[in-house]
Write a structure and sequence with these properties.
alpha+beta; Aminopeptidase; 11-stranded mixed beta sheet; 4-stranded antiparallel beta sheet; elongated
Length: about 325
């Protein structure tokens, strides 16, 4: 039997998560973190959150979310997770849970179901072969997960592979060829440094050139709040950024992204920005960095040169809802 969410199931669902999802690499949850991720989210919908029961025992948990203000939100529903206990982990039960999510999406007028990085319900996971270093969200379905192969069989299209990359910052150094690039760029009046309002202007104009509303919002807020951001500038005018430079409580370096204005590409600024970002994290005592990049994104070479390695892959998936 499948039922919509009811608070009476919270402890059994958490136990199921900690037994099954943790074995698959996700971080363990307790009541506070479960409420933070799911129940306290402005996108939580009890009619889009399902519990599978067998003889009164919790055997499965599935959650999806929607929001017209989310990217693709006017047409897409987001699948957050489907977790089944070992004794009921079959295509039949996966199909029951998936069908419930999709039906809720249809009832809300959504045209497609997506598993992707825009999902606001972020699921933390542990980076393999580390002392419980963690990343704060999963941008899709892990390709080593049974749910991934099930969704493929159900007709979900794989739209991209996101590579999760990791770097332990102990011993990090900016290599000499990057320093040489920086010296060469300086001859063309480019500089890379932490944002300084007395030295840099034009941040708003620079951000508007990326057509990325998330960057525009977050980097603007950081600059206004004096949170460090690495800036590339041409004669003092901002033309690129990397950051913000924030050390999270778990020791991870958090940053929103890196970008160079199209009019100023071709000067090696992207590489310089990224290496100086890593250096800035190291200088504030950050233990490690982790990030995502598409498997076909040329930027992966920059990350690899800095010492990052791919530790896991996630699939971005979609199915049209007929």
């Amino acid at each position: 039997m499948i039922v919509c969410w009811d608070p009476q199931y919270i402890h059994e669902v958490i136990s199921l998560w900690n037994e099954v999802a943790v074995r698959e690499g996700y971080k363990e949850l307790h009541e506070e973190s479960f409420r933070h991720i799911f129940l306290s989210s402005p996108y939580f919908d009890r009619e889009n959150t399902f519990v599978l029961l067998d003889a009164g025992q919790v055997k499965g948990f599935a959650c999806g979310c929607t929001g017209d203000d989310l990217p693709l939100g006017s047409i897409a529903g987001y699948i957050t997770c489907i977790v089944l206990s070992d004794d009921v982990r079959t295509d039949e039960h996966y199909r029951i849970m998936l069908g419930a999510l999709e039906q809720r999406f249809r009832s809300l007028g959504k045209k497609q179901a997506d598993v992707l990085f825009f999902n606001p319900m972020m699921l933390p996971w542990y980076i393999p072969n580390t002392p419980k270093h963690e990343h704060n969200n999963a941008p899709g379905v892990p390709v080593d997960n049974l749910l991934y192969t099930f969704l493929l069989r159900e007709g979900y299209a794989e739209r991209a592979i996101e590579c999760a990359m990791y770097l332990n910052l102990e011993g990090f150094n900016v290599p000499e060829d990057i320093k040489a690039k920086e010296a060469s760029a300086s001859l063309e009046h480019y500089s890379v440094a932490l944002f300084n309002p007395t030295l840099h202007d034009g941040v708003k104009d620079m951000l508007s050139g990326f057509d990325n509303p998330l960057w525009q919002k977050e980097i603007t807020q950081c600059v206004n709040a004096e949170v460090p951001v690495v800036i590339a500038a041409h004669r003092g005018k901002a033309v690129g950024f990397a950051g913000p430079v924030i050390r999270q409580p778990n020791g991870r370096g958090y940053f929103a992204g890196i970008g160079v204005h199209p009019e100023h590409e071709g000067h090696g600024l992207g590489r310089i920005l990224f290496f100086r970002l890593c250096e800035a994290f190291q200088q504030i005592g950050t233990a490690y960095m982790s990030l995502y990049t598409g498997s076909t994104n040329p930027a992966i070479r920059i990350y690899e040169k800095a010492g990052f390695r791919t530790v896991r892959q996630f699939s971005v998936m979609r199915r049209e809802l007929l």
